[in-house]
Structure formats: structure tokens, C-alpha cells
Amino acid sequence: MGDAAAFDPEQVLRDYAAVLIASGDPDANAWAAALMWAASRIHGGHQSIYAGREFVKRFGINPYPGEPA
Fold this sequence. Notes:
Blueprint: H1 9-23, H2 28-42, H3 51-59
Helix pairs in contact: 1-2
């Protein structure tokens, strides 16, 4: 167990995006773009404090309407 790679949520999102693009599904590119956007916002954790604000600006909806955007 000590040899297992550390969990990297950014890489997980990027891996899902890569698989989506290869899937050929008509919505794959939109989902992949959203996952890549999310991955870039959690990089190192320091950018994540702005993720909500940028999400609302980019996608036009606030998933947490009770929180300030």
C-alpha cells in the first residue's frame, strides 16, 4: 500500500475529460471542457477560492445560491 500514488483530484478530472473526448458522445466536448475548467481551479488549492465566482461568470448559474459569488 505504501507504493500507491497519492490521490490527485486534478488528475482524476483530467483523466475523465480525456476519456470523454475519445467517447464520441455529442455532449462529450462540453463535459470535457467543464471538467478541465474544474481541474484548473483546484490546482494546488489556492485558486479554488475563486472557483464559485468564475463558475457563475462562465456558466451563468450559481450552484450555491446562498453563498456570495
